[in-house]
Recover the amino acids of this structure.
């Protein structure tokens, strides 16, 4: 998994794809 909540830079860079971010966040919360 390339998405890490601790990586604020990646989070900001992926804000443009909000739907993708939401899916990643959901996966993180479930994990």
């Amino acid at each position: 998994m390339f998405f890490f909540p601790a990586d604020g830079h990646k989070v900001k860079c992926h804000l443009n794809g909000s739907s993708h971010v939401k899916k990643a966040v959901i996966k993180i919360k479930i994990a």
